From TrEMBL, chains A, B:
Coiled coil: none annotated. Pfam families: FAD-oxidase_C (PF02913), FAD_binding_4 (PF01565). PROSITE patterns: FAD_PCMH. Belongs to the FAD-binding oxidoreductase/transferase type 4 family. Residues 84-264 form the FAD-binding PCMH-type domain. This is FAD-binding oxidoreductase. Keywords: FAD, Flavoprotein. Transmembrane segments: none annotated.
């Protein structure tokens, strides 16, 4: 069953190797590990619902608790320390567009606000209940998950927006197609959630970001339905799909979407290379991108991340071999790892491999084959489980991410890492902060930083340190002129930093559009802007 | 000098070959050729300006006449028959963002409306003055045409939005870069015009549509400035660039834009193939697209267009040879022409050529080399001059275009052609209607239909027949569920057909956004929606 207070299925554990724990304790000190709040005690905190149980609405304490949060650090600290709430008053589970329409109409009649819920994986507070006096209906879309239509000639599939990754891909694969959208949250996050948060999958270089994959969509809005897009290409006015993408539930609930799909690839491999330093690896990444080599993925870890990943993975003998091999190849002691995804039919894959490895080697990369990549691919969605075991071992973890032009990648990365260290140093704490780029574009790349620090023993301490960390890194991102989010969205955590990116005029435009379709502000209010 | 009443430079004529004229007369009958209105007589129709000449504003009759129209059929018929107007009251020519800001502030203070003018090439009425009682300032952006910045590492160039194609490309080529945006109007149309009408260049398959090329932009709006975009990639809320793209001057005037550029390609060739029929050519086009072969351009002419193009080109001996060659190759008498653009460095070009020709030949294509393609490339922007000589020979011409999924291409094309024939048959006139697809996407392609019919001798007749034709074809497009425009925009001619594409809710959203930045409706009013 789904964990109510952590990541994933409660039958799955990803243990933290003893050496990894020792490494973290040597760097950060030993963290506190108070006992987590229990499900029973958390349920006991859920007050009586302000709504009667409409047909199909669940007003039980457990359902309302389970739908009261996502996976942001603030959510996580609240559920682990037992400081949860506010809660939605009811959870509805519509299975079709018409069901969703009916739920919204009923909610509106009741003066309730609505929070759309996909897989509950938001890391920036999209699902947070903010009490403004109105009752709250959480609309769980997971029952609306079917492949509704597939046109193989046009390569367009109509899919229920509540479909989580595995359900969506299984239905498409039965017909020989894939969407190809693989965020780390793939096991739980849903099509509708990907759309309204502008998600980017790990192989966006081949398949595109979710905005490239969206052909058209149907929304249930506060007072009406809205069919958007559906044209092959159009110069007829603004592209309104691009208002829906990133709308975070505030324009309406996406109930069905027409998505561009493509045939299952015959061949896939992930190649690993090491470079002597970050500058060399970054230059190689830029060269591969600018040469237009059709890799499906391109990731570069900085030296801190390369080191930490190898230690946390716990493959000590493999690491020893690797270090001695890389040392022998004169790569020094701060190597940076690159991973290249090669996906396609056999001939195309051969060509991509040759082109990409050719450029990477010319830039100083040492190719060590596909074995590490195969392990990465096998565990690509399981890494999120480490958060559970890190917490249990006394460590908090969060990620902050942005995208920057090539000319400013290194400066922005340094600023983010320094901000993280400075924020925790203020509490006499240390941070382990490391970063990678994992999505490349002609103009630049994403930057994804992970920060690990030790737990403080109580909710107030953990949340204060995190707030300080989050604010410092967000200010570093904004100060670098970079986006407040490349792939996680805005929610509540990034909302204070949206105006510098969009401008005040831009915020006014967004608000005008939201007010047009939702004059009473009943759709996921207090999120985005 | 620029022709005031037709296409292009008045020192350039593209003669209609005698055989082409004879062919058209045999199919359509001989058209009337009354004498065109003179520049003097047209200037004499321009009434006194309602505005005083502000510094830098031109209120002369000739400037106001030259800025009173674009290149739509309605514009063309009006200027040729001397039935012009209404006119802008003044023409301003700001050279910078600050100049544009000042023009808008002054216009606002005067209670005037503003019509932005790039190269005057709109074919759907974007530049038409619609008299609602307020004075009108036409803002000619042609003095704002400089390359302002170029970052070769990020491959981003900041360019004055008034730059027409040749000026823009020359400045970039001096640094080894191109934008790669080549609409047929390239000689005159401007960056800002491309952005606000969502233009597609002939080699969009390589370089992208203008929306793919736009990194960020600066706008002067009615009451404020607006900086939009500028992020490498972002999940932080709606992408507001996509409201600017297609805004047709109504959100504000784009003054500067940051564009994705790429290095000049070493090699370029355009290969021609012939197929026995449309279905075979269409299937080949779809296969090449779905195989992901990186051709820079893919065009397929239907049988009527292939025949007409060859006749109008006037290369009789070449055609005879081609027909006999194609006949010998058993292609029959309704061959369809495909043209494939191959652009890149030498190794990439060789690969693209091999892949694309391999698929095309397997689908029955007969490759005749690159000579026809070289002629096409040399004349790629000169074809527009034929409109002048067709008119002088007694023939009217217009184009209608859309985009459709692969599964509906042929049905939509037939419906458009039949609508054109039926509309003119109602006047006992015949139409020559032929089509091609010239932009391909995973889900489908553009469809571009040209219609030639004979002139009726006076303005009322010409405009009535055209209105009937335009309405019939537009209804056929809407009836096919297709977009009212793939590459020309909305203006006034397509405005009645926008709601079926965007939905009433979508139109409300667009209007809410426009009203937010321009509550008085002073920016290009009565256009778009």
């Amino acid at each position: 069953m789904r964990r109510w207070n952590g990541w994933g299925d409660d039958t799955i554990d990803k243990a933290l190797p003893a050496a990894a724990r020792a490494f973290l304790e040597s760097r950060l000190g030993r963290g506190d590990t108070p006992i987590d709040a229990s499900l029973d005690s958390a349920c006991a905190q859920v007050p009586a619902s302000r709504l009667n149980a409409e047909p199909g609405w669940d007003v039980s304490a457990e359902a309302r608790l389970r739908h009261a949060h996502g996976q942001s650090f603030a959510d996580w600290a609240a559920v682990r320390h037992g400081d949860v709430g506010p809660f939605p008053d009811a959870v509805a589970t519509p299975a079709t567009h018409a069901d969703t329409r009916a739920v919204l109409d009923r909610a509106r009649a009741l003066g309730a606000v609505v929070i759309p819920y996909g897989g509950g994986t938001s890391v920036v507070g999209h699902l947070k209940v903010i009490d403004d006096g109105r009752p709250v209906v959480c609309v769980d879309m997971s029952h609306n998950a079917r492949l509704l239509d597939l046109n193989p000639r046009d390569r367009i599939a109509r899919i229920g927006a509540g479909a989580p990754g595995p359900v969506l891909e299984a239905q498409l694969r039965a017909h020989g197609f894939v969407l190809g959208h693989y965020p780390q949250s793939f096991d739980y996050s849903t099509l509708g959630g990907w759309i309204v948060t502008r998600s980017a999958g790990q192989q966006s270089r081949r398949y595109g970001r979710i905005e490239d994959l969206l052909h058209g969509a149907r929304l249930a809005c506060a007072g009406s339905d809205f069919d958007v897009g559906g044209q092959v290409a159009s110069s007829a006015g603004p592209d309104l799909r691009q208002l829906v993408l990133g709308s975070e539930g505030r324009l309406g609930i996406v109930t069905e979407a027409d998505m561009h799909v493509c045939p299952v690839a015959d061949h896939e491999a992930f190649h690993t290379l090491f470079f002597a330093d970050w500058d060399a690896a970054l230059a190689a990444a830029r060269s591969i991108t600018h040469a237009g080599v059709a890799v499906s993925m391109l990731r570069v870890s900085n030296a801190e991340e390369t080191d930490t990943q190898l230690r946390i993975a716990g493959h000590e003998s493999a690491i020893a071999w690797l270090r001695s091999y890389l040392g022998w190849r004169r790569l020094g002691d701060r190597p940076c790892m690159m991973m290249l995804g090669v996906t396609g039919d056999r001939a195309l894959a051969r060509r991509i491999r040759r082109d990409a490895l050719g450029i990477a080697r010319a830039a100083g990369g040492v190719h060590i084959g596909t074995r590490m990549g195969a392990i990465w691919a096998k565990n690509r969605f399981a890494g999120a489980y480490l958060r559970n075991s890190l917490w249990d071992a006394g460590f908090a973890v969060d990620t902050m991410e942005t995208a920057v032009p090539w000319s400013r990648t290194t400066a922005a990365m340094s600023a983010m890492q320094q901000a993280a260290h400075a924020a925790l140093n203020r509490y006499d704490e240390r941070a382990l902060a490391f970063a990678h780029l994992s999505h490349v574009y002609a103009a630049g790349s994403s930057l994804y930083m992970t920060v690990i620090w030790r737990r403080g023993g109580d909710y107030a301490t953990d949340i204060e340190r995190w707030r300080s960390l989050k604010a410092a890194v967000s200010q570093a991102i904004v100060g670098a002129g970079a986006t407040i989010s490349h792939q996680h969205g805005v929610g509540v955590d990034h909302a204070p930093y949206l105006a510098p990116e969009k401008s005040e005029t831009g915020i006014d435009l967004i608000r005008a559009a939201l007010a047009e379709l939702d004059p009473d502000g009943m759709m996921n209010p207090h999120k985005l802007c």
